[in-house]
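Appendix B.2, paired examples.
Example (i):
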Amino acid sequence: MNRQTLKAYYQLTRLNRPIGIYLVLWPALWGLWLAADGVPPWDILGIFILGAIIMRSAGCVINDYADRHFEGHVSRTCTRPLATGQLSEKQALGFFVILALLGLSLVLWLNALTIWMSLGAVALAILYPFMKRYTYWPQAFLGAAFAWAVPMAFTAVQNQLPWQSWLVFAITMVWALIYDTAYAMADKADDVKLGIKSTAILFGEQAQWIIGFFQLLMFSGFVWMGQLFGLGGYYYFSLMIVLGLFGYHQRLLSHKDPSLAFQAFLNNHWVGLVVLLGIVVDKAVN
């Protein structure tokens, strides 16, 4: 395998653009800290960090395979390896299988319930990329795929699935509707031409305000989460920062500029990190 091919595989995983890893990892770490009521076991923490990197990479590969006939017509994606022919469809599918098996092998170190849960993660990773052809809500499927790490975190630590874990799952799904709608706003013109569906197209001119509604819904979920898990002042201080970030994202979206909508998407991962820091510090102090 020559250097150019290796570079193409690397580009296919988008490890050079780690935003997707953060969007998967921060909610997974929320779940681990909440499930453990503090610092989770180090081996489980390591498995989830590696798993987030590997499964996000696998998700990028299968996404590019699903979009292989569209990417060449979109300015932002026309240089990706499948669009340019640097890699074949067969190579991409084979690479996805390798990454998925590698991710599953990590889970084998965990309990049986978490192993069974991991099959749902793989199924959602495969399902999501194809949904944009059939529904205007592919962002909801992305949210389910990214949020699936949350209940897995609870089963890994507690070997059970408490109902409270599904609140954190739901918060993460709402978050995906926020940031991935902003992402879709950046691609809206190309998506309309290609017949690709998204919440940005569905919401139309009201997209900014509907994102605002989802931001309020997410914030309310965070408040409820704090009450359920006995979080204190440091956590609620982090939520005040989150409100400021939401306001900044609204300002970016108000310009109706695709590049600023994409900037709002990129900046969203700070929401997840700030909440994580609030949880970690609160649990450490209290």
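Example (ii):
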Amino acid sequence: MNPDTPTTDDFRVLVVDDNRTAAMAAAMLLRREGLLVDVCHDGATAIRLIQGTPPPFDLVLTDLRMDPVDGLDVVRAARATSPATDAIVMTGYGSVEAAVEAMRLGAIDFMTKPVAASQLIHRVQNFRRTPAHGVALVGGSSTMERLRDQASRLAGVRSTVLITGDTGTGRRHFARWLHDNGPDAHLPLLVARPMEQLDEGELVKAGTLLIASFDDWSLDAQTLLQRQLFPLTPGQPPRVIATSSPEVGTRAANGEVAAELYFRLAVIVLHLEPLRSRPEDITPLIRHFIEHHQRVFGQDATLPDPSQLEHLLHYSWPGNVRELSNLAERAVVLGPSTWDAPLDPTTSAPGLPALGQGFDLAAHLEWTERTLLTRAREQAGGDIKEMVRLTGLERNRLRYKLNKYQLLDRSR
């Protein structure tokens, strides 16, 4: 690293590329942005640097195709050494499947070569402002303050946790936060699926076992899950985190949910309140989602003005935080007029937009595609085979589109 390079903070980047010219050019651009940049030209050296003396790198920018140690190995090393270190991979055309695999291993994004200077700076600086690894517990209400305090207490232990709440309140988001900030964050998060036998090999390597919406499973599926959980040792990985509706206790008492499984999972119960009961969180959530979607789509957006915000604060938000995120995404993709669109809880998608100056058909079609893929993912519970059936897309094309819109479940 050039000691004469001025820096604005201690944000550290490692550039890894066996093309020396490309690596040095990327490093020069990022140093001009005031970042601390190290460079190496092979995967083995990159891994030694990653595993070296702290402080760790904040971001690893690595080429995917290198020999003999490739970018996938670099991503593995980065995630295993420091959960706080994120990775962006660079890949040539025709290597999308490899890039998808890199994201499954923990990379946050990929760029297709050749990477333009403006694209590189934009992507890294956006990540620097809003780190993509992990999740944030956003909100200023007393409810969120209490949840953040509880989350901080739970992060360092392996107690079994049951997270209850209405659909869209962020139950899986909260579970991911507990995993990312827990003692086993360097290990994978494994998701249990109804009527699927848990793989013992994957189970012993997992840091967290997530059981999502288990009260919606059939009683047969719940019984099978209960048998598979019995050998797990409390206080040892994998930690078990489950999510359910708020009525799970009543349903267990009525025999609709396996009572034995319920009491096995309800060691510590955290309840997420619906968004309508904590309107103080709406404004910070809007800012958070706008920043996130700006980074995803690479375009700017405006926040709602005071009158628009007043309308949003008095809306009931039947879809909770998920509905608010969708609205923020539409505002980024379709423009500020989105904030004036009627919020109709009886419809699952907005009507056709008005054509006129400023309308972007390509952006609208992308938003429609992403919305339908999100709905398919939720309906299928993240199962790729079921999503293939629902969407009619060939498996590889489906995975490509899920990756494109950052909908790919990296825990699978």
